[in-house]
Each structure stands twice: as structure tokens, then as C-alpha cells.
Amino acid sequence: MAVMYQAVYRRASSLFCRLHSTYVRKMRYLNELKEDDSFCRQAQTSGTFYLFHNLSPFLQEVGRKYLVPQLSATEMKRILEKFKETEQWIEKSVLIGCSDEHIPHFALDLGALEKSAIESELKGSFTDLRKALFVVDEKDFPLLASAQALLRWHDSHQYCSKTGQPTQKNVAGSKRVCHASGITYYPQMSPVVITLVSDGSRCLLARQPSFPLGMYTALSGFCDIGETVEETVRREVAEEVGLEVESFWYSASQHWPLPSSSLMIACHALVRAQQTEISMNSLELEAARWFDLEETVEALKRDHRSSKQEDGSFLPWFPPKQAIAHHLIREWVKEQASRTA
Ligand SMILES: NC(=O)c1ccc[n+]([C@@H]2O[C@H](COP(=O)([O-])OP(=O)(O)OC[C@H]3O[C@@H](n4cnc5c(N)ncnc54)[C@H](O)[C@@H]3O)[C@@H](O)[C@H]2O)c1
Ligand SMILES: [Mg+2]
């Protein structure tokens, strides 16, 4: 028995070491690409490229699936030659990751070239990010989201906000520098707290007027400058529904690219069971109410289409699984179900 345990343990720890060293080596490689311009320029000649056109990612519809194709450096060169563009275009690309085998991945926006001509050449289409995020395979979601956010950041930070002079990107695209002032700009995300409030047996979900009809989600809000996550949770819940948070705990986080880069920090919060009367802030919200476990489980089964009723009204439904709000709601349901079991 002891021998068997040792063999299993040895196999597990060697697997851990292998995984660990692959990960560490990969992170070190990416860091080197960000820090060393000539190393990164060299890597562009053997990398793969994800294409965008005015910030819409290039997708290929194959059967019922939407794939996110990667073009090799050779293919990229061929396309640019075909459109009579020089290889200098490659320098506009930004580093977005690499494979375990250290093949670097770049994103490139071909916004200045004719969209339909590239689409017919490459047999696919540039798709609005809002749609693309929800039709691609789940594993491609973070990649598309971060690539688009990074390209958008570069597009909107071409000039120094102090001197008005043009800024230059480093080859990897991990920063931009204004040579007149010496200021370095780094890509940024705005921290946002998203909180699923519960009174112990129900959860609180709300909707803004701009949401698709029938969609409810957890409360969210940008962190004010200088605020801690704890302070934002308490303030947002007080501001939006007039309740006082008693305790809260962190669940998970997610980068959300729409409408501009946010770091979503997802939390569960508890309010006192005796103080659950909602006083909704109608400047921001259109509806806010408590959902019991059964109603929450039912709404989780619906989507935008299936929630539509014959009279044109909509039953409540929640954001799809790609959104961290969905994860919070599922987590709450699981916890409630295990409590009542
Ligand atoms: N992934 C998800 O599951 C999920 C769910 C809900 C919301 N979100 C995202 O969270 C973000 C914030 O949600 P919200 O609208 O409830 O926030 P919010 O309650 O803070 O209200 C938005 C308002 O805050 C102000 N604001 C303050 N700082 C801002 C900043 N850095 N950028 C933009 N506006 C700022 C603006 O006046 C804006 O109209 C949105 O971008 C939304 O897309 C994601
Ligand atoms: Mg809000």
C-alpha cells in the first residue's frame, strides 16, 4: 500500500513540477518579449496573428461554430503584400500571449484596409465584439476580450495627455512613451465591484433601462478613486438599493471589455434579514427585487429568446455563462441548495 501511495505521489509531484516549470517558463518568456524590443521584433517573424478591423475580431463560421483563426507570420506577409502594404504593418501588432511551446500570439487591427476585401480573401467576417464574445468557444473569450481591450487602449492613447505630442508604443505593446515629457503610459482597466446581495434565503437582482428586456443581474459599480473594494461594495449597495451590507466575501474576478476595460471583482454580500426593504435609485435602475431560490433556478434555465411570452412581455432571465454575474448567481444557488438539502 505504502509503495503504491509513493508511486502515485511521485507521479503527481513530477506532473506538478512539469506543469509548474512550463507555466513559469512561459511567463518569463512573455515578460522578456515585453521588455526587449529587438527580441519581440524577432518573435513577430515566427508568431501567429489574430486579426481585427476597427476593433471587431475576425471570425470564421464553420458549421454551427464560430472559430477565431490565427494567421501565421507567412500568411500575414502574403495578405499584406496582396493589399500592397509593407511588412511594417506587423509593427502595429500587440502581444497577447503565447503557447506552451513559446509561439507568441499577436493581435493586429487592419482597420485602414478594405474590410470586405480581407473578408473574402480570408473567408470569414469581422464581427462586432458584443456578438463575438457570446458565440465563440468559452476558451477563446478571454483572449478576444483582452486583445480587443489592448488594441482599443492603443487606439485611444496615441497622444500624451500632458504635452499633446504623439506617444510611441514599445514593440510588444505593453506600454507607450512620450519622448517629449518622458512619461510612460501603461494599459489600464477600471476596477468594478459586482455584488450579489442575499438576505439569507433570497438574492437581489436588478435591471438598468439599457439592458435587454427581461434581463436581471447583480448590482455593479465602479470603484471611486481611493476606495477599497469593501468600501465600494457597501457604497454601491447603499446607493443603488438603499440597503446596508453586513458582511461580504470575494468570489472571483474577470476582465470585461465592454464598453471599456473593467476588472470585475465579484462578491457575495449579506444584509440583515430584518432590513430588506428595497429603496431603489431610479436614476440608475429600472427595477430591483428579491428572487427566491425556486425563481432563481427557473430564470437560470431561460435565455433572451425563451423568456419571451405570447403577450410580448419577458420573464426574468440572467446574463449568459460568459459573464461573471452568471457565475455569482450559480454559486448562490448551489450554496442555498446545499443548505436546504
Ligand atoms: N461581466 C458582468 O457580469 C457584468 C455585470 C454587470 C456590469 N458589468 C460591467 O460593469 C461596469 C459598471 O457597471 P455599472 O454601469 O453598474 O457602474 P456604476 O453603477 O458605477 O454606474 C455607471 C456610472 O458611473 C460613472 N463612472 C464612474 N467611474 C467610471 C469609469 N471609470 N468608467 C465609466 N463610468 C464611470 C459614470 O457616470 C457611469 O454612467 C459596466 O461596464 C458593465 O458593462 C459587467
Ligand atoms: Mg451600477
From TrEMBL:
SUPFAM superfamilies documented for this protein: Nudix
Nudix hydrolase domain mapped to chain residues: 187-320
This enzyme's EC code(s): 3.6.1.22
Gene3D superfamilies according to UniProt: 3.90.79.20, Nucleoside Triphosphate Pyrophosphohydrolase
Family annotation (CDD domains): NUDIX_NADH_pyrophosphatase_Nudt13
Pfam families: NUDIX, NUDIX-like, Zn_ribbon_NUD
Coiled-coil spans in chain: none
Transmembrane listed as a keyword: no
Catalytic activity: NADPH + H2O = reduced beta-nicotinamide D-ribonucleotide + adenosine 2',5'-bisphosphate + 2 H(+); NADH + H2O = reduced beta-nicotinamide D-ribonucleotide + AMP + 2 H(+); NAD(+) + H2O = beta-nicotinamide D-ribonucleotide + AMP + 2 H(+)
Cofactor(s) needed for function: Mg(2+)
NCBIfam families tied to this protein: PRK00241.1 (NF001299)
Name this protein carries in UniProt: NAD(+) diphosphatase
Origin organism lineage: Eukaryota, Metazoa, Chordata, Craniata, Vertebrata
Designated gene of the protein: NUDT13
